[in-house]
Amino acid sequence: MQKKKPSVCIIGLGYVGLPLAVQSALKGYQVYGLDNDSEKIKKINSGKSPIQEEFLEINLPKANIHATTNAKVIRQCDVSIVCVPTPVDEKKIPDLSPVRGAVESIIKNFRKGQLVIIESTINPGVCEEVVEPLFAAAGYKVNTDYYLAHCPERINPGDSKWNVTNINRVVGASDKKGLQMAADFYENIVDGQIMQMSSIREAEAVKIVENSFRDINIAFVNELAKSFDKLGIDVVEVIKGAATKPFSFMAHWPSCGVGGHCIPVDPYYLIERAKLSGFDHEFMKIARKVNLSMPDYTIELLQDTLNEIKMPLNGTTVGVLGLSYKANVSDLRESPVKELLKLLKKNKAKALVFDPFVLEKSTVKSLSE
Fold it and tell me: What is the CATH number of the domain that holds 136?
């Protein structure tokens, strides 16, 4: 007789949690999805994706998911997976309140022996310094009453090639049993490689390193763009040339800034945690400063171009193509376009904005207007 697969509760049904819930259901798990957005829950239960994503639009109608706002479903599950956002506040200080809230929901609906997996991006130490103490305060002991693991989310919205089904994953846990339980789960749902890390802290560090690497390299080419503009050099052509040496160069491209829920946010989690250990991540802070400067530099380039034809920015109509942080998604989080629009308004320019994925916030509904 085939062994029954565990029941799973996915907490947070956004860009990370919903694809994970769908894939788990397609692989035969009994899946409950928990989210505090009642409208989103209605859509999911009707088989409609609240997110414009090819994988979800194709597979959500085929997936048997029970989505709800009622946290009591946690009591029915063998595995609870936390997929809530981990933002920063206005001062760029990490905000772990969504993770704490999700963990507290698990504690209030505790099921002995449950595997708790944190997928949300967190700095090294959060599982041991934040999550475990919350359980301990309620009288629950890790590796005895429950098992704790971390598998940092890896999702690339808008990418039809790489999605939840085939991206390699890493897992770390509080003990060997929890590690094997978590690895078994992901091996059942993902076709990619599952790498078992030696500790939960190493697993936590992986995602921070991945996204800080991206942020630093984007800052590098953004700084090159500023320099090469003064030298009369085409930075894009130079990057293409450097990329012909594939064994030592990975192409990144300059832009008006860095957006999304990960790359411009995650470095702050390590920057702030490292301060507590007496280390200052100067390089990472400089990269953030460079990338945050790009909306201003974009406006400078626009003004310089207008100066060449003796036109003021004041009163000029400017077409802005795209609102989201990247192509083919509707996610506006940390989009540098927000700052661009503020700067255009400050300079009394008129912006006509169009994004086919964010029509509700576009000022025109088509490129022909």
Answer: 3.40.50.720
Please give the full DSSP string across 326-357, using - where no structure is assigned.
Answer: STT----TT-HHHHHHHHHHHTT-EEEEE-TT
DSSP state of 127: I
Q: Say whether both 194 and 212 belong to one domain.
A: no
- Domain contains 15: yes
Burial 261-287 (b: 16+ CB within 10 A, else e): bbbbbbbbbbbebeeeeeeebeebeeb
Q: Is 262 a catalytic residue?
A: yes
pLDDT in tens, 163-200: 999 999 999 999 999 999 999 999 999 999 999 999 99
For 346, residues 6+ apart whose C-beta sits below 8 A from its C-beta are none
Alpha carbon distance 41, 69 (integer Å):
7
Q: Are 224 and 254 in contact (CB under 8 A)?
A: yes
pLDDT of res. 1: 38
Pick the catalytic residue from 9, 83, 151, 262. Answer: 262
- Nearest residue to 260 via CA among 132, 136, 87: 87
The pTM of this model reads 0.92
Give 309-325 as a DSSP string: TT--STT-EEEEE--SS
Does the pLDDT value for residue 266 go beyond 50? yes
- Tell me which H or E stretch contains 79: strand 79-82
Answer yes or no: do 135 and 13 share one domain: yes
Total residues found in the chain within this entry = 369
Q: Which residues pair with 152 in a beta bridge?
A: none
Domain that holds residue 221: 208-361
In the chain the first and final C-alpha atoms are separated, in Å, by 63
Rounded distance, CA 340 to CA 5, Å?
49
What's the rounded Cα separation, in Å, for the pair 302 and 351?
A: 13
For residues 248 and 278, membership in a common domain is answered with yes
In this model, does residue 34 exceed pLDDT 70?
yes
